[in-house]
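QUALITY CONTROL LOG
STEP: pairwise intake check
CHECKER ROLE: data steward
CRITERIA: each record must contain a sequence immediately followed by its structure tokens, with no blank fields

ENTRY 1 OF 2
RESULT FIELD BELOW
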Amino acid sequence: MTLLAVAAGVALLAVFLIRGARANRREWLNALSLPGTWVLRDAESLSILSFGGSLDEGRYTWREDGGEEEGEWRLHGHTLRMTPDGGEAADYELRSFGDNSIGIDGPGHKQCVYLRRRDNVVQLRQGS
């Protein structure tokens, strides 16, 4: 009987820990609010990242130096995986600085800091 009580206690603790981790993740995703337009700070050339979709995945457009790349993006923890249409996925470390700026570090983009571009368009979420 005590073994059953210990197992139930461990299972209950695991449920609370998982719920807490999920709540923390949702809070981080809401604070990050990645969908939108981001512009490279202090750049000699213009680099603009536009993310669409939900808070943790969707479509992106990356414009820089006259070129444009489109594809799918997804967050896995703090890793941003970007898969261009017809290309191979690349992983970038994503950091949120909390002041409407993010850091992206990965192939071809070493320690780049992007600032959220604000515009006067209010994004409306579609109802279910």
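ENTRY 2 OF 2
RESULT FIELD BELOW
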Amino acid sequence: MKKSILLGAAALAAIALAAPQAADAGETKIGGYYQFRTVTMDNTPGDVAGDENANYWAQRLQLNVDMKASEKSHAHLVTRVLNNNTVGGADVTLAGDWTVNQLWLETEAWNVGLKVGNMPIALNDGLLFNHDTTSYGTILLAKNFGGVTVVGANVKVAEGSDNVAPALVPAVTGPNANHQDVDFWVLSALGKYSNVDYQITAAYLNSESRVGGVPYGAANGTGVINNATDSITDGWIALTLGGKVENVDLTGTLIYETGMDNVTNNSQLDSDGFMAALRAKGKTGFGGWNGYVFYGAEDFTAAVPGGDRTFWSPTWDQGGAGAQDLMQRALVAPNGGVASTQSNMWGVGAGLTINAGAWTIKPSLDYASLVEEVVTTAPAAVVYDSAMGGTIGFTTKIQEGTMLDLSGTFVDPNARVGGTSEEVMHYVQASVKMDF
């Protein structure tokens, strides 16, 4: 765990530099990557999307821009010209996405670090907040006190929107509809005691009063607020410790959630809960190893439901153009409720890194299960209570800055309710990625 995850707000590892700016204002650089991937996939859960036995090509072009006025004042931009664009046939005009994933400014005022804009944020080993490749609208202040960095932030979750049908709130739409705002208030401290890195964070969710509808984080319409003026609040306290024991790097996180106020008909949302996780990694003579174990209680609600995207392994989150996250497809999407990669679920997994000449081989094995059965998304839906899977990847450098990646993933889900038990799900991909 590094202080840069807060002072830098967990900036993406791929972030480069640049953007148009007067030459005398500082330096401007541009970077990013292009990725081309072929995908073959078989046996997706229930074939609900009609994509069983899929075979397609996908590509992505990402631009990372850093505009630097001085050592302490700079702005960053991450945009996707093409995101998960499907490669078509002859005489095809590519329709660019040009989606801005991140855009923020960093500076320092009176010895206080200041960050404003839509920025990536990862807190407490990416378990409380995790940006994936998206961002959060945030105002963030950071100050160092004798080796302890204290960070305060106001994080926008939603502005003028609370996931209710427009017909229910005809008079309160748009950016001026304050009672539809959803905000996080975050206070965090990082430091090191003896040989242990630590981060402790308190986060408070305030979803302003609104008219009817589904509260923040509710699924399948099973939760409602008590009346038209109630706001919904929730709180989280997270502690992360990291250090080395006998040449093994350990990172442990414990998060307690207080439960949502003013929610009825949903015991999972209004009850308190916790989640805990431990990651470990070490080196070997041929490369390295890693492992994880986590448990999210039935009544634990993730701070960012549906967007937690916890990276446990490539089986959970493959990443890149046209990726298919099979473990998530098997256990998160079909089950609804508050099942996610953190909530109402436990899992364990391990992986290896094997250096074999010019190639790096990374096999991994994963298992996960729901803690308690949740309401299905539909009576006839194919749902699963556990799944076992794994991924093996082969990467090598084919030119400077250009990597070839070959990998395959399988997941064997265990059917619980309704539908037909799915056979093993397969995902095979080959990609070429050029960083520039």
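INTAKE CHECK: passed for both entries
DESCRIPTIVE NOTE, ENTRY 2: The helical segments are 4-7, 267-270, 326-331.
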